[in-house]
Structure formats: C-alpha cells, structure tokens
Amino acid sequence: QKEVEQNSGPLSVPEGAIASLNCTYSDRGSQSFFWYRQYSGKSPELIMFIYSNGDKEDGRFTAQLNKASQYVSLLIRDSQPSDSATYLCAVKKSSGDKLTFGTGTRLAVRP
Amino acid sequence: ETGVTQTPRHLVMGMTNKKSLKCEQHLGHNAMYWYKQSAKKPLELMFVYNFKEQTENNSVPSRFSPECPNSSHLFLHLHTLQPEDSALYLCASSTANSPLHFGNGTRLTVT
To answer: Is the peptide bond preceding residue A111 cis, with omega within 30 degrees of 0?
Structure first.
C-alpha cells in the first residue's frame, strides 16, 4: 500500500466549477498535511496546510481533513484556467519528521 | 521570487562526467533537502541536513554525493551517472515546524 495515495488524473473541470482533489494516507499517526501546487516545469509551491480535523479555508481554497478515515482533500472554488497544474498531497508524522508525498493529481480547468 | 535558489536550471551531462548542483537558501532555515522527481513517481527524498549534519540518506547510490558546508548552502556532486538518473532535482529548506520551501530545481539529462 502506498503511503500517500492520489488519483493521477487528469481531473478536468469547466471554468467556474468546484474542483475536488482527494488524498488518502496509510499512517494513522500522521499529524500534518500539506497541499502543494506544481506547474509544469516548475517547483512545488505550498498552497495550504492543515493539522486539525475539519475544514480550513483560504480564499478559493478549502482543505478538509478526516483523520478517522485517513483522508485529506482540497477544494478549489470558482476554478480558473490558471489553476491547471499538478497538486501534490504531502503528509508528516511529527514536526521533525520527513514529508511523504503522493504522486500528484493533474488538474485541467477548461475555459 | 523563491528564497531557495538552485543552479544550474538545466544540465546535460555524459555518463563519464562529473558535475555539481548548487542550492542556496536565504530564509534562515536550519534544514536542507535534496529531492528527486521523476515522471509519474512521487517526490523521492534523497538527503537531509540539519544544522550542516546529514540526518538522512535514503539509500541513495554513491554516485550522488551531497555536501553541506553551512546551513545556507547545499551541493549535490554527481559522477558516473546513468540515463535513469535523468530527472528534476529539487532542493528545499525548512525549520522543524515550517513547511518545505522548494527551489526551482535543476532539470538533469544524462546522455
């Protein structure tokens, strides 16, 4: 079983729609969860992090965490073509521990 | 503008060459990392340095040799690489409680 699992996509949504990206993780002791966005040919950039169960909102982005079910998701409201990128989910057990990444989900927003 | 700078951005080298990748961070972080990113694979952690001391070597072949002279600089020395080593090499930095900040990466092609 992969430590961090994501559907590779591509996930295609029309402009203005809600894009929903999902991630599951295997280690129940995981404490910190991150979403990175990576444009083609560029480096990953952090867009959201979440530590507690529930929702965390930042502008058009909402991260959702459910530790009991071991999943974390990212919702992008009012999707724009500029949101087209690969979204990487990353998980950490504790503050000094290494980050484990998923393979990423490619999102394509159609104009 | 990223606080983590990597050079060169692109590198083509033959299997008998020796080259080095350089990373510099201006964020005051104490930890620096090398990651390898290949197509359709998760980001692979290669090496971790904390306060100049190597704290993780993820079973990386000896043809990759890291060097960390201080907390702001990190090198990856390459020699006798194989074509399958062609990938995007990403440097990152962090503190114990902060997310990773990535550099723009070096796209390496081994011919």
So the answer is: no
